[in-house]
Amino acid sequence: MTGREVTRGIDPDVMIKRDEISAQYVVDFLNELVRMDKYALTDMMSEKISVNKELMNHPTVRHKELVDGVPEIGLLSVINGMFGLEGETQAIEVILDKRTEVITEFRLTEPWKGWTGPQAA
User: Does residue 85 sit within a domain?
Assistant: First the structure.
């Protein structure tokens, strides 16, 4: 492996180059992980961490929140930030079960206009 390749899904024999990864590929990959352990993915995606102002002001990191004046972001904010500027690219959204609030799937949205919170299935 050259360092510019990543595995597709869980099959180490199927390789793609990093610059070939699309938002749809990431959605498919995340949904594969949800099928394996939806509770772990729910916990992982629910976590928010405090970040410094430099990361808070990154032009493509999305869904920035202020909690008691401290900027926080989650993993999905970073993942969506890989695909470009708000309003120019599609975004990956989380779909939650209405009753359990556990992730049921990830979806690709229309060009990102602003986060309205997790969608219920």
Answer: yes
For the chain, list the strands marked E by DSSP.
Answer: 5-8, 11-17, 48-50, 65-67, 70-74, 90-96, 103-111, 119-120
pLDDT in tens, the chain (121 residues): 444 444 444 455 555 565 678 888 899 999 999 999 999 999 999 999 988 888 888 888 876 677 788 888 899 988 888 887 666 677 888 999 999 999 999 999 876 555 444 555 5
- Cα 77 to Cα 61: distance, rounded to the nearest angstrom: 6
Residue range of the domain that includes 76: 18-112
